[in-house]
Design brief:
Number of domains: 3
CATH topology of the largest domain: Beta-Lactamase
Number of helices: 11
CATH architecture of the largest domain: 2-Layer Sandwich
Strand content: 5-15%
Order of helices and strands: HHHEEHHEHHEEHEHHH
Largest sheet: 6 strands, antiparallel
Shape: elongated
Distance between the termini: 53 Å
Helix content: 55-70%
Length: 297
Amino acid sequence: MPLPPESGRELDQALEHAAVEHRRAARAAEIASRHETQLLTAAESMKAFHTRMAATHRKAEQQHRTAARIHTAHADRLRRWAQGPQDRQAPSDLMAAACETLGASGTALTLFGTDQTEVLTAASNRASRTAQHLEFTFGQGPARETVRLHRPVTAAGSEIAATWPIYGPAVEQLGIRAVATVPVAMAGSTLGALTVFDPPMTHGPDLETFQAAADTLIASLEPAPLTDAYGDIKRWPALVSQADLWTVVNQAAGMVSVQCHCATADALALIRAHAFAEDRPVDDVAIDIVNRTLRLG
């Protein structure tokens, strides 16, 4: 069965992105290898330079290879979707492709505003989205911790509940047994986190690969330059079209703030508390408030 035109274009773009990333990885590897070779005969004064350049380009190589794997997985999932049954769900998105690439049970990307309010979220599956909603509802969890500390955060088993006494037990009920988060940044500033649920833990979480995946996802939100450092045209699929913008939550907070004569932060706390008491997603409660079928004050 042929892909619909829009999905067909997305498949072509995914394959193009994968090919570009493979070429960029090869170029980075070539430059790294050159510096590693020069290091063998370099003067003492130049050894630090060649060591630094080799390490920089090896890291770039890993980032590009991870990006290529994500785009290839995205293309493969789109093909499988086209060959599936007629009642299949929506085609794959970049989050699902990242999850498959990382070998995890789920992934979630969360971006925060300056007031630490979620402004954009994207998740690979229902459990990941629910865990993301729990973090918003309770105001605690790995994404918030990563943004606060500006570094990766990991927890497994009993550590999850010990680290986040409210969020931890709730997320464990989803069957999630381990989490790892890495910060994501735009324009050099940490503004969010990629959370990986149940990552492979045989040798500990592969934080460098998770960071490369986060960089791939966040790049799709940034205006792309005409060319990148390796001379390739850089165009990315728009993750924004696959994400949930929390406009309705912020709108509801504004309404509750007026109704209760309180600050927006306090209004958000009221919405979270109501969602928790009713065991409902925060965005569902926000929709009711905006539609004026629910009043908290």
